[in-house]
Amino acid sequence: MIKLYRFLKPYAAFIASVLLLVFLQTLADLYLPTLMSDIVNNGIMNGDTGYILRVGGIMLAVAAAGTTCAVIASLLSSKTAMGLGTILRNKLFNRVESYSLHEFDRFGTATLVTRTTNDIIQVQMVTIMIMRMMISAPITAIGGVIMAFSQDRMLTWVLVIAVPLLTLVILLLAKRGMPFFKSMQVKIDKINLVLRENLTGMRVIRAFNRDEHEKARFEDANKDLTDNYIKVNRIMAFMMPSMMLIMNITSIAILWFGSMRIDNGDMNLGALIAFMQYAMQILFSMLMLSIMFIMVPRAQAAAERINEVIEIVPGIVDPEDVKKVAQGKGFVEFKNVTFSYQGAEQPALSGISFSASPGEVTAVIGGTGSGKSTLINLIPRFYDVDEGSVLVDGVDVREMSQKELRAKIGFVPQKSILFSGTIRENIGYGKDDADEEEIRYAAGVAQASEFISNMSDGFDTMISQGGTNVSGGQKQRLSIARALVRRPEIYIFDDSFSALDFKTDARLRAALKKEIDNATVIIVAQRVGTVMDADRIIVMDEGRIAGMGTHRELMSTCDVYREIVSSQLSEEELA
Amino acid sequence: MSGQNNEKAARAQQKREPVHGGPGGAIGRPVEKAKNFKRTLKRLIGYLKPQRINLTVVLIFAVIGMTFTIVAPKISGDAMNKLKDGVVAKMAVQQLTDVQKKLREGAQKPEGDPAQDFPLEQYDSKALEAIKEVMNLPLIGEISDADEKADAAEKIINLQKSIPSGEGQKMSMSDEQIQDALRCIRETGGRVDFDAIAQILIMLLGFYVLSSSFTFIMQFVMAGVAHKTVYRMRKDVDDKLPKLPLKYFDSRTHGEILSRMTNDIDTISQTLQQSLTQLITSIVQIAGYIVMMLTISPVLTLIVMATLPLYIFATAFVAKKSQKHFAAQQKELGELSGHVEEMYGGHKVVKVFGHEEKSIEKFSAINDKLYDSGWKAQFISGVMFPLMNFVSNVGYVLISIVGGIWVTKNRLNLGDITAFIQYSRSFTMPIVQTANIANIIQSTVACAERVFEILDEQEEAPDNSDARVLEFPKGEVVIQNLDFRYKEDVPLIENMNLHVRSGETIAIVGPTGAGKTTLVNLLMRFYEIRGGRISIDGIDIVDIKRNALRKIFGMVLQDTWLFNGTIRENIAYGREGASEQEIFQAAKAAHADHFIRTLPDGYDTILNEEGTNISQGQKQLLTIARAILANPAILILDEATSSVDTRTELLIQKAMANLMKGRTSFVIAHRLSTIRDAEVILVMNNGKIIEQGSHKDLLSKGGFYSDLYNSQFTGANLA
Question: Domain ABC transporter: where (chain B) (predicted)?
């Protein structure tokens, strides 16, 4: 957490002011008992009403001044803590946006979202608490000790015993409670897991009549969590009363020893009253601190997660001197490429060499895990190769600027992702300055015109977050239109027709054929029907190229290909 | 265990999670309101009923514990009074003794001394008489009996009045103070009564110990009360879920249901644990403090009460101001989360289209707005505490002034004023707390209402009393005049008829939304039909016990649901009490045995939460093994191979062929190659069977099916 506070630099002046203001406010609070003691000693004992009124007035003024300080401090600390949150969020988001898929996959979407939102809010809230309480607590404690000391030296000994005792109790309880606090989240997660599984597997559970089994699983998790809760709360039940007891015994001790000192004439009554109030203020500030001890560990965990994201530097950055592509129309070449995912024992791709020219269709086919998607992910430089090189128009992709490289590519991912916004905006995402004509045209080619015009607002229909209000096939077509509007030199389709029924699939491919005649097209597919007529079919098997050629060539030379084909087509169709 | 669903659920949950602001931050937050506050509250209290004995204990202990706490300052005030009386008496005795001593010294001095203090010749006879008398009295400091001492002191003071001496010899005291001092001397004998003080302090110590132990017991018991109640609530909801029709889950996201079971119930548990005891103690405190303050001084109590409207005003002011900003903050936060989710979810797309900068721009804009509303909300709610403190301080000062003046007039004791100050300062805490708790209870009831809503949902119709169990189902399925719709006003399946003989394989094809999966859902009676009849082996499924009905079916779905457990457990899920050997056999028949044995822990490999440690195809094989183990009479394969590559599919198809032998099977598939060999192919569109027959029949017919089938080969390829 301390690490994150380096981002507080722009707020240094604010923090200094807060410190000063809190200090002043604490002084004001501390001064009140002294004034009260004056009232007792000089006013009450001497029966001086005028004096009482005068000092009373001063007390009011001091209280008002203290409040003013507190209000300004609250203003500044709110701005500071929220500012920190804002800075952290910006830093984090910027960092994540610069991640290549490599770093991104290390975390995963869900946790990155949590880190950007909830974790930062945690840190922000604790920062506010720290600025409101943690700063004032030690100042109150120290100030209280000084003031108490100035009232009476000998009585301070009572505090010398009470304060460490209180600290000890807090620490002991914290130590005993911590393991339960920590396992709490684990147990909550467990109960959530069982529940989530019950919801997602509802049909399976019912189909297999396993309700009782699931109930027992939930019961276990529920009991476990409940026991933990009860234990934590029982430990906490001990905390407050024991702390109060220590505080109260302290006040009794002060009263007793104070009486003796007064009797000896070493101290006066007013000082005793003031002293007791100081003691209470000191102990209360300790209480405040103990609350912080409970809150800070949670934020600590959040802070660590945030730091982790900020500290990872994206592996893929533009080179210092970017090579410009002199000319070219999207010529793609793989030269003996080997690539492994981080931490994997075996390379996902090895010894891949091929080239694809404009006007050609290259299809990639193979089993799950054979490396099809990995292969095409190397073209837009989502990952960097371990060995060999990927060239676009003769230039190594690692020597180009990512922006320029990706401007050449129209990518249709396997999972169609749309963003919230109108259909027009979603298609226009492919090209910043696309006009209405271009968008409508792209939609037409992608066989999306019909369903768009059937929608209530046509191209202005809002797509909800995650694209939940359009079907899988419609999403896929919109995502194809988005790539088309870009008019790129290289098209990459990653299994992009899977959600379409055969008829639409066929119509779409017919329309596409005319449209992208001059581009380099790379298609990953599972259906033999989709790839049969490609200029070049690359058959992937366990990260290697098992065969390359046209359908006819492969049928006679490649076992893997034949196997795939025979699983999909019957004898007569093969003929 | 599909990862995507997990993620969505997790995120939906986050959205609902309130932003915790700590004690200071909670003030002024908009409060969620229940639709029917009274009824829900009643019901929530009903939940506490089994704990009523413990609750009574809590209540009693809370009251007793608090009473001790409340009385304590008054007792310590008594100690303070004793101390003060002693000190005053001692001072008075000291002063009087000094006067006596001075008089004696003056009398003994040789006459004619120019520096003598007592020029006797100045005094009249009355004064001389008085001086003589004073001198004859024994030194007050040496009198041991308290009453004699007081009498002597009174005499001296009275005598002194008739001695018109210099200022130095007079005691500078008002009449009230003299009276008070005399009383003190009479009571204490001119010294601090340590015995009495010790007695009070020991009593006080006892009170504190008792108060702390009672509070401890109360909270200790309450921990059990709160969490056992919530435990039961969770259990009730979990028991309810299997009884709800699938229809219920269709209309809600998992995140929404999860959030009710976790966040909402958590809020309830926290309220029960903390706020309930706080509420009890606060109310006892408020009442107790008022009583105690009244016993000390009704007028001072009035002063304290006069500050109350200030609190209310301050709270209302802050709440009103901050609510607007909190709402804005919540809105911006929602927008921000939405943007982050989309951008992270579509990271690849953002990158490949080079939209990083735009995305960052939008993020910054929202972030800035969030900052704006955020700091305002925090600031205003942060002002609350200083404001309260100020009001409290104003009260403090007023009491110090008025009380101080009264003490000088002897209308109050010093101890009383210190006790009163303690009371008045403590008084503010429970009031602020009660206001806070009122809000908390409101939102808790809203949470409880959402939980109760689940409990109140209409359950699936129970089995008929004479429902049957099919001992040896053959798997003959007859559908007659079937009508079904998910939504009342949207007809889906209308007047469907079908006869499937035992052991036949039925393939169902058709575009998305044609009703393929619906038909399967109806067979298993996941939904109730509107009209017509479905029967198995001649018996209407409505007359078969649900459990028994579902036992007839085995299911392999596209969504390969497996749970977080070992592979062995996941396969064994198919049938309760399956033996080790049966599990291995099922895995072998599903062609899964081989890959399982290549995993580091074999059958004991734990499938992780995201289900990422085995591939999609392997998961599919496990679900097939699970279905094989179940050994059903009727098999349902719903898009079982769609997310699997063709080579794995080959394995799966072999496995499925094993599985389908001798069973009635319903196969739904996108890939026409999977269904070619079915005895009957049903082509569905818009909830109707539009074609029916074998592959060859349908192709030669040249209808929808042949159209569909041929479109995958016609020369419309990309190349």
Answer: 477-711
Tell me which of A209-218, A321-330, A479-488, B465-474 is least confident. Answer: A321-330
CA-nearest residue to B403 within chain A is A44
Beta-strand pair A387-392/A332-339: antiparallel
Average pLDDT over residues B158-180: 62
Cβ contact B515:B684 at 8 Å:
yes
Q: Any idea which architecture A332-574 has in CATH?
A: 3-Layer(aba) Sandwich (3.40)
Are the beta carbons of A379 and A409 closer than 8 angstroms? yes
What's the whole-number average pLDDT of chain B? 79
Q: Are strands A409-412 and A490-494 parallel, antiparallel or unpaired?
A: parallel
In sequence order, what DSSP letters do the residues of A429-470 get, joined into one string? TT-TT--HHHHHHHHHHTT-HHHHHHSTTGGGPEEPGGGTTS
Closest approach of chain A CAs to the CA of B383, in angstroms?
6
B51-72 mean pLDDT = 87
- Determine the pLDDT at residue B29: 57
Q: Is residue B360 within 8 Å of A413, Cβ to Cβ?
A: no
Domain-by-domain residue ranges, chain A?
12-152+267-314, 153-260, 332-574
User: Buried b vs exposed e over B422-455: b needs ≥16 C-beta within 10 Å?
Assistant: bbbbbbbebbbbebbbebbbbbbbbbbbbbbebe
Is the distance from CB of A358 to CB of A331 less than 8 angstroms?
A: yes
List, as one string, the DSSP characters of A76-127. Answer: HHHHHHHHHHHHHHHHHHHHHHH--HHHHHHH-HHHHHHIIIIIHHHHHHHH
* Assigned token pair, B607: 């499938």
Chain A residue numbers with beta carbons less than 8 Å from the beta carbon of B90 are 263
Provide the 3-class DSSP secondary structure of residue A336. Answer: strand
pTM of the model: 0.72
DSSP A417: -
Taking residue A460's Cβ as centre, other Cβ atoms within 10 Å add up to: 12
Separation between Cα atoms, residue A188 and residue A310, nearest integer Å: 28
Contact residues, B window 618-637, toward A, CB-based 8 Å cutoff? 626, 630
Contact A67 B393 (CB under 8 A): yes
- Please tell me the distance from the alpha carbon of residue A436 to that of residue A425, in angstroms, as a whole number: 11
Domain ranges of chain B: 3-66+218-328+376-456, 78-196, 477-710
- Tokens found for residue B160: 């002194």
According to the CATH classification, is domain A12-152+267-314 in 3.40.50.720? no
Which chain A residue has its CA at the smallest distance from B425's CA? A277
Determine the pLDDT at residue B231. 93
Homologous superfamily of B3-66+218-328+376-456: ABC transporter type 1, transmembrane domain (1.20.1560.10)
Task: Provide the percentage of residues in chain B whose pLDDT is more than 70.
Answer: 85
Compute how many other C-beta atoms are within 10 angstroms of the C-beta atom of residue B718. 23
Fold of B477-710: Rossmann fold (3.40.50)
